[in-house]
């Protein structure tokens, strides 16, 4: 499972926006989970990371227009965390894959390669302290 560090203020909304690709807001019932994946917070630095399932292929709903994700991606562009070209590429890939199963981890942009960690790397960096 890759862990992807993101700005703490955007972590939960990114997970939520991914979930809306699987089930758009207008089709969601009260019994649907809100977040796609868990958000992990470092116990001392307050950094945030998404725990993305790496083997799970999920269906992008045929009615998913990616508007919520595109809106969030624009925030990442404004913050300098993504280039406009990367945001456009992600949005186009989502639209091209509507109705198909994808691995969400495959949508991680190349510029975020330095933000992707293994479980062992996260553990070594103190993200999962042991309780005695």
Write the topology of this structure.
Layout: E1 3-6, H1 8-22, E2 39-41, E3 48-51, E4 57-59, H2 67-78, H3 84-96, E5 101-103, E6 116-117, H4 119-124
Antiparallel strand pairs: 1-3, 1-6, 2-3, 4-5
Helix pairs in contact: 2-3
Please give a structural write-up:
By secondary structure, the protein is of the alpha+beta class. It has 4 helices and 6 strands, in the order E-H-E-E-E-H-H-E-E-H. Helix 2 runs antiparallel to helix 3. The mean pLDDT is 87.
Structure summarized in a few sentences:
The protein has 132 residues and is α+β, with helices and mostly antiparallel strands.
Question: In total, how many beta strands?
Answer: 6
Helix amount: 25-40%
Largest sheet: 4 strands, antiparallel
Strand-residue fraction?
A: 5-15%
Radius of gyration: 15 Å
Which structural class fits the helix and strand makeup?
alpha+beta
Strand arrangement within the widest β-sheet reads 2-3-1-6
What is the string of SSEs from the N terminus onward? EHEEEHHEEH
What is the tally of helical segments? 4
Could you report the average pLDDT, rounded to the nearest whole number? 87
Distance between the termini: 25 Å
Low-confidence sequence ranges: none
Shape: globular
């Amino acid at each position: 499972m890759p862990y992807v560090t993101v700005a703490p203020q955007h972590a939960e909304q990114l997970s939520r926006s991914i979930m809306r690709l699987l089930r758009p807001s207008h089709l969601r019932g009260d019994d649907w989970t809100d977040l796609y994946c868990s958000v992990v917070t470092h116990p001392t630095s307050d950094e945030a990371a998404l725990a993305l399932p790496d083997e799970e292929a999920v269906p992008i709903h045929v009615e998913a227009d990616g508007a919520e994700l595109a809106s969030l991606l624009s925030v990442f562009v404004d913050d300098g965390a993504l280039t406009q070209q990367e945001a456009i590429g992600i949005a186009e890939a989502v639209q091209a894959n509507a109705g198909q199963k994808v691995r969400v981890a495959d949508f991680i942009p190349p510029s975020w390669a330095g933000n992707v960690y293994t479980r062992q790397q996260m553990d070594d960096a103190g993200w999962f302290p042991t309780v005695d």
